[in-house]
Specification:
The protein is mainly alpha-helical and 89 residues long. The protein is built from four helices and no strands. The chain has helices at residues 13-22, 27-44, 47-69, 83-87. It starts with 12 loop residues before the first helix and ends with a helix.
Length: 89
């Protein structure tokens, strides 16, 4: 879930366990779970913050597919910027 010292605080055992349990669900069940979380997330964010959240999720998926389609090439060869590049790390 995290690969950087700057994000080590996110390595929370309860969250990790929830992610592991969610990953045991079928794809349809996981999608339903994510959709079920959206209203609670959207309610806590402004419209602008929510759009930023959606953009982060989209980029995460694009980054995953790019890495999957180009194994062993490393971050420096990828076209989709990652969190580290966007945050200036």
């Amino acid at each position: 879930m995290t690969t950087s010292p700057q994000t080590d605080w996110m390595n929370h055992p309860v969250i990790r366990k929830l992610v592991e349990q969610a990953n045991q669900l079928t794809l349809a069940e996981r999608i339903t779970l994510v959709k079920g979380l959206i209203p609670g997330i959207a309610a806590k964010l402004s419209e602008r913050e929510y759009q930023g959240f959606v953009a982060e999720i989209q980029m995460k998926g694009e980054r995953f597919h790019e890495a999957k389609n180009h194994p062993g090439e490393g971050r420096s060869q990828r076209q989709v910027p990652g969190e580290r590049e966007l945050e200036g790390r």
